[in-house]
Amino acid sequence: MAEGNRSSLARAISVVENERAGFQDLLHTLLSQGRAGGTRIGITGPPGAGKSSLVSAFARLCRRGHQEVGIVAVDPTSPYSGGALLGDRIRMNDLATDPGIFIRSMASRGSLGGLATTTKEVIDVMDAFGFPRILVETVGVGQTELEITGAADTVVVVLTPESGDGIQAMKAGLMEIADVFVVNKADRPGADRLVKEIRSSLKLRTGEVPGAASGHHGPSGHHGPSGHHGPASAPSKPDESEPQRWVPPVLLTMGQTGEGVEELVQAVDRHREWLETSGELERRRRERTADRIRDVLDRELKRRVRRELTRESMLAEALDRIARGEGTPYSEAATFLEQMGVDPTEAPLPGSPRSAGGVE
Ligand SMILES: Nc1nc2c(ncn2[C@@H]2O[C@H](COP(=O)(O)OP(=O)(O)OP(=O)(O)O)[C@@H](O)[C@H]2O)c(=O)[nH]1
Ligand SMILES: [Mg+2]
Asked: Which parts of the chain sit beneath pLDDT 70?
């Protein structure tokens, strides 16, 4: 990536990340150009599983093929992994000097929208700059891991034989969101057993309940060859009109040495192909876009409400009325809504002039 491009990408990301004036116009312009089409690859899993090591090895492999890579490392908020950012920096240091790799670390919480929106928007910016692959590392425990599904085309879940990750994963719903499983730290005892465990629980989900599992974005209704096609009088030639269901591969890797990472790159590329041919890519993107519209609306409304409430005198007046027994937080909220021009007739708050049971 040319130096000039790099610095304008860095600038664009800063504007978006800090929600600086005009950030939405910038995003609008970038997204209108229609250049985005890279594969967004989420790498998620418990703290210390080896995600950063794998991301580095993955990026190095892409570079061998002279492909540019974008990396977004979302800082952990979890106390478990307070030192992770430093670790990431050390492990990714050698990558940062490569002009074909663009790395951005970011906090997991934006000022208004939460993890979701700002992180996703930064990924959008990278995509708009034309990276064929964008790797997004998210650390989380439980629910925050699952948020990656809203930002990635392909979700790679990294587990290790340590500390009973296998069982944890199923609890946290990771089984449902994974498109590719990686058992990292193959050098540690129990790695093979974990691979087997994951495979057998995948079989439970995908083999015996046709159509019940099709990745994290909801059922797509495709029946794979292992599914039941109904009557035994199956046609002699395979039904080619019906796309195959994706069965998440389970791979063994060693993050430090990069062993098994080539297979990971291949699995991700295969998944991308499947996404395209099955129509799932289109479906996921539509879903993602619908989410984005909701996100933008949410953020915009929140922003307006906060702006309204920062008018000190109005808030003070409301507090005085409540203190005098002339209102409640509900009736005052209703008044604010009215002043913001939000139609209160839809679902009037108690005490608003339009609700039946006012306080008067
Ligand atoms: N034994 C062994 N250690 C590994 C392997 N891969 C990574 N590690 C080590 O595991 C530790 C954590 O690796 P990271 O790549 O930082 O893991 P991470 O998932 O990014 O960690 P957080 O971002 O803190 O959640 C480091 O000390 C790595 O050197 C592996 O295959 N085998
Ligand atoms: Mg990391």
From this structure: 75-94, 108-116, 140-146, 163-172, 206-243, 344-349, 351-360
Identity of the residue numbered 230: G
Distances (CA, A) of 270 to 178, 249, 267: 14, 10, 5
All residues at 6 or more sequence positions from 57 whose CB lies less than 8 Å from its CB, including other chains: 255, 258, 261
pLDDT tens for 212-231 read: 444 444 444 333 344 344 44
Q: Which of 85, 135, 256, 261 to mutate to test the pocket of ligand 1 (most atoms within 8 A of CB)?
A: 256
- Secondary structure of residue 202 in the 3-state scheme: helix
* Residue 42 CA, ligand 2 centroid: distance in Å: 12
Tens of pLDDT along 227-245? Answer: 344 444 444 444 555 557 8
CA 177 vs CA 92, 155, 213, 216, 284: distances in Å: 26, 7, 10, 4, 13
**Residue 84 in contact with ligand 1 by CB distance below 6 A:** yes
Q: Is 152 in the pocket of ligand 1 (CB under 6 A)?
A: no
Q: Give the separation between CA 49 and CA 158, rounded to whole angstroms.
A: 6
Question: Ligand 1 atom 23: the closest Cα is on which residue?
Answer: 84
The pLDDT assigned to 41 comes to 96
Show the domains of the chain with their CATH numbers: 3-216+243-278 (3.40.50.300)
* Nearest ligand (C-alpha, residue 183): 1
